[in-house]
Amino acid sequence: MRSIRLSSGILVVAAASLVPLHMVAAEDATDGSVYLGIENDVFAGTDNHYTSGVHGEYTSAPGETPPLLTPIRRAIAPLLDDTAEWRMILGAGQAIFVPPDIRIAAPAADQRPYAGWLYAHVGLAAEQERRLDIFRARLGVLGPSSLAELVQKRLHRQIGSPRPEGWETQIGAQPTVDLYYQHIHRFGGRFDIGGARFKAEFLPHVRMEAGNVDTYGALGFSLRVGQNYAEDFGPAARRRGASGGGVATPESGFGWSVFASVEGRAIAHAGLIEGPLFSESREAEPERLTGDVGVGLSLSYGPAELSYTHVIESKEYAAQRRTGALGHHQFGALNLRVSF
Question: Where is the signal peptide (predicted)?
Fold first, then answer.
């Protein structure tokens, strides 16, 4: 019961923070949005490593910053152009990680441990014509309070999947805090083929995160081509751990795009593998250089967009095999965004 109260508290704080954001959005006719992402390795036919994630995010229309965040905006503003439009971002989510074989009650010490993470975040998005900068702070909990064990066991029971047997060994309860920065630049334009109008874009990005769960730096890029899709910042804003998927100006009518993305990461600390900072270290040894590739499709109609991305991740810890069930991990990400 205490775990449920702690977990619910995070979501209550997130919901309460919506009040000033809603007031900001109401003052401006420009689009705000709601964004929901579901990630699961069932799309790839596996059940291990990063096995499930769900996250939601509210992005306000451009407007004034709530008083609580005004000092942060003032500190950041000199680094950006005067034309930047500021948006508020508020989100919450859950991520579930498991060992290679969930049927084993006592996973090997050098394998990825069971881990659940429940979190909420608040941030600022500074949008310019071809540039997006995200600044975010996130609070969360690891361990039983994340409700990951409850969610996975109930879901597996409903769909007839094997029961996960090792949650008693999960990473212990601990509060989490991290700071995050993301920059995306957008290059490209429109062109005609056979009388049809297309759009193609190249979007390089950089991401950095520092906290007691994850500390890393990442570089990558995305490519996409399509027709009449929203003016947003592509797959980089929708990848695992990122923010900004709701920053968009939708087009009227039907639109579509296909895209591909690549990212490499330098890992200083991987708390979901080796245990969080200031806690007992685990024997699993994380890889210090990791990466992923993703390909996907998006379909939109007016203010609504639905996209799917299939992601292949490199191995994330030393004992993870390169081939077979323990090899490079795959999962799918289904995302829905509605602007208003």
Answer: 1-25
